[in-house]
Design brief:
The protein has 15 helices and 26 strands. By secondary structure, it is α/β, with parallel strands linked by helices. A hairpin with a 3-residue loop joins strand 19 and strand 20.
Length: 507
Amino acid sequence: MPHSTACPAPARIHALFDQRLAQSPQQVFMHTPEGDVDFATLGGWVERLADELRAHGVQEGDRVLAVAENCPEHVALILACSRVGAWSCGVNARMARGEVEAFVQKADPRLVYFTRTASEAAAGHARQAQAVPSVLPGLSRSLARAQAVPEPAPLAQQVAAVIFTSGTTGAPKGVLVSHEGLLQFARVSSTSRALGPQDRSYAYVPMTHIFGLATVLMASLYAGASLVMRTHFDPADLFDALAHHGVSNLQGPPAMYTRLLAWLDAQGMAHPQAPALRYIYTGAAPLDLALKRAVEARFGQVLHHGYGLSEYAGALALVPRGSRREDTSAGYLVEGGELRIVDAQGQDVPLGERGEIWMRGVGLMPGYFRDPESTAQVMRPGGWYASGDLGRQDADGAVYVVGRLKEMIIRSGFNVYPGEVESVLTQFPRIQRAAVVGRKQADGNEEVLAFVETVGRQPLDEGALKAYLTDQLAPYKRPSRVIVVEALPMTHSGKILKRSLLEQIPA
């Protein structure tokens, strides 16, 4: 447990870093292929960037947008923004030019930074923006809005970052993430996995996403743990880090584990070499039971799970370290969080029954950035946020997420939950990933369609699959078509883009 290293929660996220800097200036915080970065070095970078921000008129409540890949310079920029009271807005550098420009318009930033030495994608965006060198060699910057309008107090002091939602079902929105929420979850996350200074976390999950920012970066800062930082996901590098670089914590979406298992199979390896590994976790997307069991068998570890979203700074529910569950529950409510499962009228349903997940608590967003209409659509009386996620809660408090309200399919008057069908599909031989969607028919009914990836792109035995589904699913739940695709479209955070699948359905 991070006993002596745990500190009282400061008002802003940079103060947590300042405490680490004062306690252990020579401790390495980030291990990269280019070299190690200790707290003292990072502290110097933060000061130089904070001075640069002030010199260009950045003030409390301004936005600073970073077109970024994971790298120490991006971490320094996040902390420098906190120091001057600005809001860091991260955009994944692998997005297209038009997407980046749309986020610049949405965020109304004073400055835009590019982690130009971290990847060719980021360098390309910097060239297109005609960015100039920053005070840190790894960064370039451009002046986006000389007259950017800062947000007023008290909101200006409350917000640490703007996280843009992935837009899996519509246009992305800017989630306002508070300092208080990030700091609360940093403590909750580090405590739930007994994280301490001896730990090293493999940090490839983008820090432009709430998973990377809260679960990876902030929790490690809270515990004084270090990061093995990478700009992108590479199975070979990850397994090398497990074998030779002391990685003890591994976190990522379910899609990461699917790719890791495929890599092990391709190498003819039954199990990875991971002498220091003691904790593995997945979140950011639904987990199916077949994948969970396969990961636990190959890694020899409990695969912990959680339920998190951008609108609730980190996670609302977690399976704590050491707790083994034989199902895919997302665990139990974290400290400071509240949850309700409600019906269409907003009334609580009995324990064990499905309904929409409502939440409130320390981590809840103040709202969407300059979008009162979208904020009003999801907020309910009493300060409850209507998530749009379908779930249930058992008598022991365990939380289960079963799908999205908007994705629920109504077939012959019955509700079909895509996650339930996907779980059945992925337990069929050769299917490694599945996505189920509904398509409206002329009579108003919905057709159930399934898209699947197969191991090694092998063909499916259609007769055996039909017999299997007949045995496992009620008639109204069975897909009318199972379409094999080379790869399911994914967001940068590991979520399946079901909207794109609907556009690809053959006539």
